[in-house]
Design goal:
The chain is an alpha/beta fold. It folds into two domains: 136 residues, 3-Layer(aba) Sandwich (Rossmann fold), CATH 3.40.50; 186 residues, Rossmann fold (3-Layer(aba) Sandwich). The chain has 13 helices and 14 strands. The strands form three sheets. It has a seven-stranded parallel beta sheet with strand order 8-9-7-6-12-13-14, sandwiched between helices. Helix 3 runs parallel beside helix 4, helix 4 packs across helix 9 and helix 8 crosses helix 13. The radius of gyration is 20 Å and the shape is elongated. The termini are far apart.
Length: 356
């Protein structure tokens, strides 16, 4: 049974979230809170497996609550985010502060779809309770015996199979649940003169991808933008796919360019990582380095098969460093991953593969 604490200052939203969550017999709402201070008290006494947390609240807002929670009672947090630019920016800060995922407040559009997504996300991040606590308790490890330090570090160990040889001048990144902080970590560690173009397919609502790209552009040495169909293939530049669209590569004569399209319209995800990996493989084959990061499901696995068959190389994020080990697991289980690395090690592996 997954025990959930629902935190929102809106009576309507609290009631709706409780009702939707408890449609799943494996989920039980053990309490609700009306503001951040109330949430901190109840988190300490109820010890829930997951907290859903609103951003805008009186007395203590969601971001301040989250920061204090991770110091005192670390646990998996799902942010409930407004579909605005301000809501997007607050959400990305929350993910930096320790929230594992977010869900946009789209209940008015389709309550059933919202409920399904809510339950799916809560069940996915609940599995990470022990690792969330470990992560935030590691800040105190300097006071712990060396054996405990080694045990904590061992949980983050990655596995290297066969390093990706280069040079390769196209990097394609597929990512979903738990992705924004990992993408930020990787891209911000890359040099501005990286001799490769980067394309990112992140499962994210349309109103969030523009602010996400803008945020990355301000934090990274690389230039980053939300992709537009027909964008030039630029080295030292990263393109983030707009939500609700697909991103890939196509050839214009002998030169590659960025393709942003609605096709296939019936894809389960938009953007679909399958589209990105498949077009990259078909157009640029051995010039391509694929990166499969944290996310639910198996989107990208079929495209990765094409990428590998055409000479592309693939790095999968390690289970220990994933919020959800779904998309990387799919390519690992199919024997498609050349390397399995922790998130902290992927940037250096990209640099090595690109420069050859």
């Amino acid at each position: 049974m997954i025990r959930v604490l629902v935190v929102d200052d809106s009576t309507f939203m609290r009631t709706a979230l409780v009702s939707l969550l408890e449609e799943d017999p494996d989920i039980k709402v053990v309490g609700t809170a009306v503001d951040g201070r109330d949430a901190l008290k109840k988190a300490a006494t109820l010890d829930p497996d997951v907290m859903t947390l609103d951003v805008e609240m009186p007395k203590l807002d969601g971001l301040a609550t989250l920061q204090e929670l991770m110091k005192t009672t670390p646990l998996p947090v799902l942010m409930a985010s407004a579909l605005t630019e301000a809501g997007a920016n607050s959400t990305f800060k929350a993910l930096e502060y320790g929230a594992l995922d977010f869900i946009p407040k789209t209940m008015s559009n389709d309550k059933n779809a919202f409920g399904e997504e809510l339950r799916r996300k809560v069940k996915a991040i609940a599995r990470k309770k022990s690792l969330v606590r470990l992560k935030f308790q590691r800040l105190k490890l300097q006071h712990e015996p060396p054996a405990q330090q080694r045990a904590a570090c061992a949980l983050q160990a990655g596995t290297q199979i066969t390093p990706c040889k280069g040079p390769r001048d196209l990097v394609v990144i597929g990512v979903s649940t738990g992705g924004p902080p990992v993408v930020q970590k990787i891209l911000s560690a890359l040099p501005g003169d990286l001799p490769a173009c980067i394309l990112v397919a992140q499962h994210m609502p349309q109103t969030f991808t523009g602010p996400f790209a803008k945020r990355l552009d301000g934090l990274c040495k690389l230039s980053v933008s939300e992709a537009v169909n027909g964008d030039k293939y630029k080295k030292g530049h990263a393109y983030v796919c707009p939500g609700g669209m697909h991103i890939g590569v196509r050839m214009r004569g002998s030169l590659p360019e960025v393709a942003v399209t609605e096709e296939p319209r019936d894809a389960l995800y938009k953007p679909a990582v399958n589209v990105l990996m498949e077009t990259a493989g078909k157009c640029m084959g051995p010039r391509t380095l694929g990166i499969m990061l944290t996310g639910m499901g198996s989107d990208g696995c079929d495209g990765a098969k094409t990428l590998r068959k055409t000479g592309g190389c693939l790095i999968a994020q390690s289970e220990a460093s994933c919020v959800v080990y779904g998309m990387p697991k799919a390519v690992v289980d199919e024997g498609l991953a050349n390397q399995i690395l922790d998130a902290d090690d992927i940037a250096q592996a990209i640099i090595a593969a690109v420069k050859g």
